[in-house]
Please model this.
Amino acid sequence: MARPQRKAERPTSRRAVRYIYAFGGGRKDGRADMKDLLGGKGANLAEMSRLGLPVPPGFTISTEVCTYYYAHERTYPPALRQQVGQALARVEQVVGRRFGDPANPLLVSVRSGARASMPGMMDTILNLGLNDRTVDGLIAQSANPRFAYDSYRRFVQMYGDVVLGLKPEGKHEEDPFEVALEEKKRSRGVTQDTQLDAVALRELVDEFKALVKMRRGVVFPEDPEEQLWGAIGAVFGSWMNARAITYRSIYRIPESWGTAVNVQAMVFGNLGDDCATGVAFTRDVATGEPGLTGEYLPNAQGEDVVAGIRTPLQITRAGARAWAERQGMPEEERRTTRPSLEERMSSVYRELLRHAGQLERHYRDVQDIEFTIERDRLWMLQTRVAKRTGIAAVRIAHDLARTKLVDRKTALLRVEPEQLQQWLHPGFAAKATHPLLARGLGASPGAAAGEVVFSAEAAIEAAAAGRRVVLVRVETSPEDIGGMKAAEGFLTARGGMTSHAAIVARQMGKPCVAGCAALEIDYPSQQMTVTRADGQRVVIGAGMALSIDGGSGAVYQGEVPLGPAPAGRPEFTRFMSWADEARRLRVRANADRPEEARLARSLGAEGIGLCRTEHMFFEGDRIDTVREMLLADDLEGRERALARLLPMQRSDFIGILREMRGLPVTIRLLDPPLHEFLPHGNQEIAALAAKLGTSAARLRAKRDALHEANPMLGHRGCRLGITYPEIYRMQVRAIIEAACTLARERVKVLPEIMIPLVGAAAELRILREDTERVARAVMEAAGTKISFTVGTMIEVPRAAVTAGEVAAVAQFFSFGTNDLTQMALGLSRDDAGRFLPEYVRRGIYAEDPFVVLDRSGVGELMRQAVSSGRRARRDLKIGICGEHGGEPQSVRFCHELGLDYVSCSPYRVPVARLAAAQAALGG
Ligand code: ADP
Ligand code: MG
Ligand code: MG
Model:
């Protein structure tokens, strides 16, 4: 590109609303903090200009125009045309070329850019301004007809697709442009795009245009002005295309934001071997390790790196070596066939390294940079905060804080609590002994196993049926988003570390192996042929089991079991300790068994918030004793059975209390509806009758007598305790005996006995007195004293509303928000699946209330309960033990309510710890 020639005039008059912001070539109307108006890409292009980095000149059409466009039946504000004309004139002056000039044409790219980056969602058009006349000007500028026709060919293809809508019809059709391109290569006897000469490319331009005419019924526009407005319209139009809408709904991006459009002078990475295009990250976004990483392609343009047409090369020498090692390629071969940018263009590489460092320090975060090299000159085309895996997110936040580039608060706020899952969810258990099928790029770490599906639709279907799947595609595209969400992991035949599949995988935190060239996928027959390293070919059909390791890139046949997680590493431990220092909420775990308690402790749990005793009742053949108790005709029969359950319960409690020594353990007395314990089928009844020495008919009659029409609201929880007091008495006795046993061993125990499903203070009063009577008796008999508390779960709305009365009897509250949500919303969780998704889709409820706590309904009940509960009893301890206790937004709410702790399943504990820290930090 030519150097600036004249100083540009200011494009806008004072009075007109400003729709256009210029960047590059000395102008920087925008700034990084103007993302709302300029979109992320535009704001950062302006910021890079501000920093003095080489940015090709251009301008941003603001998101306000997008808003206007949709508010005014897809038309533009009247002043826009003139402002675009002026801004374009400035670019012409800076570059020294004119748009549409047949002798010396300016070419531009038209790039979309929303506030939040939406990878691949919006389409960019390159080389705009080419037609049958200006192409000659481009030949004159470049003295390179092949380049000119290559650019022209790309332009017609992109414009034909994005603006004129010539796309594959149906999921099995290939891109018609690609078919024509393949055909051209075949007819010329070549395999690479780069081997096609100018004549062939020129023929392709005509063939592409003919395709457009035939399939879309429109003549390809020759007029650059018309091309430009067509492209601008297409960018705004794409804000409402199906895949953008899907993406927004997954990532909760409001429709009202709109997108900006960037029009920018082209720089060319496809002018020859001293040209290239690439993508770089200032650190490794898979592992978080420091050091520039990334990929480039010599003599290529735009999306070539991402599109996976050629396998890109590594930017650094170290990266290239590691790559070759994974591929089993000898170093000599690697150096000649796969040189890194560092080796090939060392001074440009050093400049890139400098800019990358400057950008990372400036933004104080890892950057994802797009660049192009035109005749040994580096141009910066984009920078943004890099997406990263959960593993990398923690590592990077940790490292940046340790080197003081950010403070700890910032570091803690940078990691999405959900991302911590990746530290906990493991790779393959043992060294996989399953047959290694192939190796691709380890594009997103973690391991996944499941059955093969070849389409997004199949993935969604299988996941809905509860099956785990690995999505296998030649490459993925934004249309596949839904299926990617449903799959355990992705495997693609093409594409590099920056391919669509790789980016989305890291974002979703799913394992991905990309660019696995050994796969030949045949969609119509729903199978693929894999050529193994030893040359053997294996056919894998849809539905067969497959395992992938997104770290090493290995693909195995069959289902490899998963194993330990990286959570023991020091950066994780340190990062989590910062979170612990920052938070006020305590975090406990829901755990019923000693192994779970041990796991929870190792993940940082500070107690058990919910130990369900019914699980203990189901273990092994205990269930028969439980059934015997429930089906007994009289108290005597029940007590006989309970006496047999007592030692079993006691040993359970010894196990769990011992494991949690020194930490509180909330034990909930028996809760579930009776029908869950009763025998169902005739066979089960017959077997049980034989065991109990009674008749099947009697058992059946007994079972029928216990039948309830609505068991969830029936004879359960404390109602059972009121009517069959001997059950709770046995449980209390087991708990206190266990505690006394341990106390004698000098193990510190803190049991909290929790009575479920209380709706009235009187229920709790009766049961608490009973509990204390039993406890006293046990302690007397044992000659040991232990301290314990008695409290209740708040899950019946009435208990929340009368919390003052309840608190007079309860020493603690624990919100059982699963039941509280069901009862407050009058919504059965087990049945809501039929209509709730539509409710959420239509915004009746913003979120699934069983996932994210319903603040204004359930939350309001909680607020009432907290305030009247604390009024009645100042030191009332309050926690939450529903599923919501491990969900970040709900944890934040619990923090705001002033709860003492949240409790969640063991694997959610780190998530809750970080969410609690973030809530305390006010992020
Ligand atoms: P996306 O949002 O999908 O990343 P971009 O607008 O960044 O789309 O465009 C994709 C690629 O097109 C860029 O990474 C760059 O390689 C190329 N590109 C865009 N504009 C230009 C330009 N003015 N000159 C050269 N290449 C460009
Ligand atoms: Mg980009
Ligand atoms: Mg409950």
